[in-house]
């Protein structure tokens, strides 16, 4: 009986160690990303770097940059369907009347620039991505075409 209990105890201990080591090996550290704020209308560029949590959302990284520097400020407006819409960056706000908005782009490690098909609250940057927030004018027809292509071009 005592032997059986001992065997049970050691197999439980083994299973626990196995499970905890599997979980620990799954914990991945934060990784670096850059954020470029580009005003294509004024031709101005500002670059920030930060660390983002493993599989963390872009909005989290933007909040982190905002908390650590006085030179990056942004505002969002909650959309009930798609989450936060990026309204302004560093005091410059998009305006539907002028057809201006902050476009979200991501330059990947391999050099390709993509236009994510989700906003800042859903986009999960990859390690070493350069996120580009680009203030631009939208051309109704052009954006219609781009939207139909699921934002694969920019
Ligand atoms: C027109 C449009 C835009 C215009 C809106 C301007 C305007 N005042 O009309 C502009 C060019 C600004 C735009 C921008 C973006 N858009 Co857009 N857009 C659309 C589109 C084609 C129609 C929306 C619409 O007018 N609906 C009708 C009106 C009556 O309903 P509404 O609820 O009032 O519409 C508002 C919201 O849709 C909001 N909106 C538009 N795009 C986005 C994106 C996000 C993330 C949020 C939170 C809100 C939002 O603006 C609309 C007007 O106020 C839809 C696709 C579709 N066919 O529905 C995509 C769509 C909503 N957009 C999308 C995306 C991804 C974006 C961008 C993130 C693209 C990018 N990489 O930059 C940016 C937003 C960046 C930011 N600043 O946060 C996705 C959202 C998917 C998702 N799950 O998040 C959609 C569904 C297209 C797709 N890829 O399938 N967009």
UniProtKB/TrEMBL annotation:
Residues 1-21 form the signal peptide. GO terms for cellular component: extracellular space. The keyword Signal applies. One of its GO terms (biological process) is cobalamin transport. One of its GO terms (molecular function) is cobalamin binding. Keywords: Signal. This is DUF4430 domain-containing protein. It comes from Pygocentrus nattereri.
């Amino acid at each position: 009986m005592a032997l059986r209990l001992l065997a049970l105890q050691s197999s439980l201990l083994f299973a626990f160690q196995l499970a905890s080591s599997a979980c620990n090996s799954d914990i991945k550290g934060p990784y670096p990303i850059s954020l470029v704020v580009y005003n294509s209308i004024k031709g101005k560029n500002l670059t920030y770097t930060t660390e983002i949590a493993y599989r963390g959302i872009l909005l989290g990284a933007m909040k982190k940059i905002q908390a650590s520097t006085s030179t990056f400020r942004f505002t969002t407006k909650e959309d009930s369907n798609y989450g936060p819409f990026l309204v302004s960056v560093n005091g410059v706000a998009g305006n539907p009347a002028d057809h201006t908005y902050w476009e979200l782009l991501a330059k990947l490690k391999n050099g390709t620039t993509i236009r994510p098909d989700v906003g800042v609250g859903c986009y999960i940057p990859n390690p070493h991505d350069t996120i580009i927030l680009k203030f631009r004018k939208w051309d109704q027809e052009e954006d219609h075409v781009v939207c139909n292509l699921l934002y694969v071009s920019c």
